[in-house]
Amino acid sequence: MTDKELYREAVKAMENAYTPFSHFNVGAAILTEDGEVFTGCNIENSSLGATICAERTACVKAVSNGKRKFQKIAVVCHEGAVTPCGICRQFLYEFAPKLPVITGPDEDHLMEYKLNELLLDGFRLGDEGAVLGVE
Ligand code: THU
Known about the structure:
Blueprint: H1 3-14, E1 26-32, E2 37-41, H2 54-63, E3 70-77, H3 86-93, E4 100-103, E5 111-114, H4 115-118, E6 125-126, E7 129-130
The structure holds tetrahydrodeoxyuridine.
C-alpha cells in the first residue's frame, strides 16, 4: 500500500467524523505490519472530555482486532494537514514508538514525521519499568 492510498483511506474515514461541537473533522488510517488497514474518525461527545480522536479510533479498532504491530499511520483533517494531538501521540507510542506519520494538504503533497520526533523521549513501560529511548 502506498502513502497516497493510505492517505486516501484517511480522507474517506473523515466523512464519518461526528463533530457537532468543534466542526473539526479528522480521519486516520493505520497500516498493520501484515498489510491490513484500520480507519478511524473523531467522535465527539456532549461530555467533551469523552471525545475520541481519529487516530485513537483507528488504533483501538486495530488492537481490538488482534493487531498490535504497525507500519504507518495517515492523518488528515478537513483543512488538510494535521498531526496527532498529545494524547494520541502517547497512545500510539505504546505500540510503535517510531511509527511514521503521514499527513498533508492533499495526496500530492504528503509529509512524513516519525512519532518519536513528535513525542520526544516518550513514556513507555516495559517488563522492568520505564523504557528510556526507542529501540
Ligand atoms: N482531533 C483529532 O481527531 N485528532 C487530532 O490529532 C487533533 C484533534 C479532534 C478532536 C476533536 O474532535 C476535534 O479534533 C477538535 O479538537
